[in-house]
Specification:
The complex is a heterodimer. By secondary structure, chain A is of the alpha/beta class. Chain A is 31% helix and 17% strand. In chain A, strand 1, helix 2 and strand 2 form a beta-alpha-beta unit. Chain A starts with a helix and ends with a helix. The model of chain A has no long low-confidence stretch (mean pLDDT 92). In chain B, strand 1, helix 2 and strand 2 form a beta-alpha-beta unit. Chain B is globular and about 60 Å long. By secondary structure, chain B is an alpha/beta fold. In chain B, strands 1, 2, 3, 4, 8, 9, 10, 11 and 12 form a 9-stranded mixed beta sheet that branches. A 3-stranded antiparallel beta sheet of chain B has the order 5-7-6, covered by helices on one side. In chain B, helix 2 packs parallel to helix 3, helix 3 crosses helix 4 and helix 5 packs across helix 7. At the A-B interface, helix 3 and helix 4 of A face helix 4, helix 5, helix 6 and helix 7 of B.
């Protein structure tokens, strides 16, 4: 079985979670419709990281027993160490737009779903990994049309952290609190293809490594215990990535 | 009591707190509001909005939606909401999830406002003239923080698993429903069934119950969340939501959907 793009992305995110130079990830929350970040967390756990994963959208065994606000209360206290966010638009200062393009609130352009908890979580959680599979000039823009959640705050504004990195379907960018740097390109991509498809400016080292393949151990974890743990919450994803012949039969 | 009786209690123009698709919305009451031709409702997504909101918007029942996001989840964007927003027939008041919870908690406590971290630098704040930033009075200066006004909905409406004869209802761990029941002026609930024993007298059930003190009326509506799922009672009907999402892409398709699944139920009830 060849390596699925989803497996590569999950492994790339797991490596970021395990990065010893980043703030520790003891308690990670995974939001709605985030199967790849969920797989990454389960993989990091499988690799031996002591990590509590709270999935907002698990039906059975949902960890939040005090209402939906409990996640935000926990995060407000600083007890969620890592969260994942995306955006309809993301710019070079790691600003996220989940509202829409054109005039506020997205009329005259495209309306995105809305900001969800981003305006809060991005600022109170010490570490955020940005994840957006589509890597195009439509998504990665010089400046977002609207800011759902700012990537950078002026001194004096309460903020525990910001983006650690942005993972896309083409590459991994690291964020240093001011600017993105191209960290690695996925197989089939190059510094040139990233430049061609990125609307914001970023730093580019002289030589850009290729995002490493998941190791045999990582693949075995992804295709075994990780998949098993994900089946209930993300059945469609599991069928698509790990049982394509089954997904085909269901149609 | 029937869902149509509950819908008759809701006047045009009322503000209604509605939970999203993972937290027990009453599709039965949404259908009944459409059948009674409700107008100018002001919906509050707690903290986001889903299927029932899209349905009510599509049927022309809604003037505004205050919410942190609108989506049909796996079935994609909310087609009727998106269309109404572009046409200017519905207004959206953008929020962020914890702000919705915090405003409702302020109403629950009977205090005029509560602070919340984050949000500063977000355009959500820039477009909320009713939200304000103060300097934390306990920090000795230089610590800006957002204040949010209490939000007291006219109604909280949701679908619980069961009610007892004393009007207590059971929602399991979905405690945000307790918050909206506490915060709202009036709370209307549909349930799968009525149980004989008092929920509050069972130590294991009481933590998942909401006291009837907060609840004005209960109506039985079997499968009243459908096509949304209800805890471990029944799963969401993903195929039906996908059918809705496909039909609701066009005005004609949406009318077909209403005729088939919402208005037809009224005819069946009238014939019974």
């Amino acid at each position: 079985m060849s390596i699925a793009p989803e497996e590569r992305l999950a492994a790339a995110i797991a490596h970021l979670i395990l990065d010893p130079s980043a703030p520790p990830a003891r308690h990670v929350a995974v939001g709605a419709a985030s199967p790849i970040p969920a797989a990454a967390c389960l993989l990091a756990k499988g690799l031996g990281q002591h990590i509590r994963i709270s999935n907002l959208h698990s039906t059975r065994g949902n960890p939040f027993t005090d209402g939906c606000r409990e996640l935000f209360d926990l995060a407000g206290q600083g007890r969620i160490d890592l969260f994942f966010l995306g955006g309809g638009q993301i710019d070079g200062e790691a600003n996220l737009n989940l509202i829409g393009t054109g005039e506020w609130p997205g009329s005259g352009g495209v309306r995105f779903p809305g900001s969800f908890g981003s305006a809060f979580l991005y600022m109170v959680v010490p570490r955020t990994i940005l994840f957006r599979e589509e890597h195009s000039r439509r998504v990665l823009v010089p400046r977002v049309d609207h800011v759902s959640a700012p990537g950078i705050s002026p001194p004096g504004v309460f903020r525990r952290g910001t983006a650690q990195a942005l993972v896309t379907g083409r590459c991994v960018f690291r964020f240093d609190g001011a600017r993105f740097t191209l960290a690695s390109t996925h197989p089939g991509e190059s510094a040139e293809t990233i430049r061609a498809n990125t609307g914001f400016s970023y730093a580019e080292p002289a030589s850009v490594p290729t995002t490493p393949d998941p190791t045999e151990t990582e693949l075995a974890l992804l295709r075994g215990p990780v998949r098993d743990a994900m089946l209930e919450t993300y059945p469609g994803f599991c069928r698509r990535v790990w049982e394509p012949e089954l997904a085909g039969a269901a149609h | 009591m029937t869902p149509d009786n509950l819908a008759a209690l809701v006047p045009d123009g009322a503000s209604i707190a509605i939970p999203p698709d993972n937290s027990l919305p009453s599709a039965a009451v949404a259908h009944a509001l459409i059948r009674r031709g409700a107008r100018a409702l002001r919906l509050i997504g707690v903290p986001v909005s889903g299927f029932t909101t899209d349905l009510l918007v599509g049927a022309g029942c809604v003037a505004s939606v205050q919410t942190s996001a609108v989506s049909l989840g796996e079935a994609g964007p909310a087609p009727r909401f998106t269309r109404a927003l572009a046409a200017g027939t519905v207004a959206v008041i953008d929020a962020t999830c914890p702000a919705i919870h915090t405003m409702l908690q302020a109403a629950e406590k009977g205090v005029p406002f509560m602070p919340l971290r984050g949000i500063i630098g977000s355009d959500v704040l820039a477009h909320r003239p009713d939200w304000t930033v103060i300097d934390n009075p306990f920090a000795g200066g230089g610590d800006p923080i957002v204040l949010l006004p209490a939000l007291q909905p006219d109604f909280a409406i949701f679908h619980a698993v069961c009610a007892d004869r004393d009007g207590n209802v059971w929602v399991g761990r979905r405690r945000e429903l307790a918050t909206i029941a506490h915060a709202a002026r009036r709370t209307l609930v549909t349930v799968e069934r009525i149980v004989e024993d008092n929920l509050l007298e069972d130590e294991r059930l009481a933590p998942g119950a909401i006291s009837g003190a907060y609840i004005e009326a209960v109506a039985v509506a079997a499968r009243g969340a459908w096509p949304i799922g209800l805890l471990d009672e029944y799963p969401a009907d993903a195929a039906h939501v996908a059918e809705y999402a496909a039909l609701a892409r066009s005005d004609e398709g949406f009318r077909t959907y209403l005729a088939r699944y919402v208005l037809a139920a009224a005819r069946a009830a009238a014939a019974a």
